[in-house]
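Quick entry between incubations.
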Amino acid sequence: MKLSDVFSVNGSAMNAQMLRMEIIGTNIANVNTTRTPEGGPYRRREVLFESSPVNSDGFAGALGRASGTVGVGVRVSRVIEDSSPLMLRFEPQHPDAGADGYVRYPNVNVVAEMVNLVEASRSYDANISVIQATKNMIAKTFEIGRS
Amino acid sequence: MDILNLDKRVDPLQKELDIRVKRNQLIASNVANVDTPDYKARDLDFSQIMAAEVGKLSLKQTDDRHMPIAPGEGGIPTQESVATGRPDGNNVQMEEEMLKLAQNNIEYNVLVQFVSKYLAGVRRSIESIK
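Done. Structure below.
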């Protein structure tokens, strides 16, 4: 149990939120991508978060886990592809149009992505606030014994 | 010989500081996991901390084979929040965590002031006999 453990806890969360924002950026960038290296149109991606104890290596980690004094950070467990149906648009002149004249566009909803982006950004800010507060506490610690 | 009662005066304050450090870490974990599905917010278990403190005063060893109970040595008790959360099973409330963060920070500063003032007093009394 150290004040500076908080940096790894919130640092991991900021990394995770940053990856989430990158994935959102990828989704928005590819909102009209009908051709990908894997074939077919782009599919919306999403990150899955899971909590993970920080500093879990070695003796200190084992002791921390056993006594419940280890901080719980976050990591991205997986990036999944959204399997919801693609958007169909009737554009027979489009080179990627199917035999029926419909083009399959990615299942990305820009409005939903923007909302998600704001949420990720807010969570990122909250983590910065905690780090800031912890920095103040550490600075205050140095005042002990100073008259 | 502890004329200045350093142990008696500073130890409780040190423990109070430890509790604030622990709480800061719990808040940090809660904020970090605000978007983690099925994560439950954790906080200090004040009733257990109190019970441990009270028990320290009244627990008497009636038999030599009894193990002495030293509360606080096994870590500071915590508990999961029972608040109803979002549909994804997460019950972190960001506003509450931010308020706790501010409160905790202030309490920590107050305690540091206490320790500093006490140590300054000790230093003054030492210097006065020079």
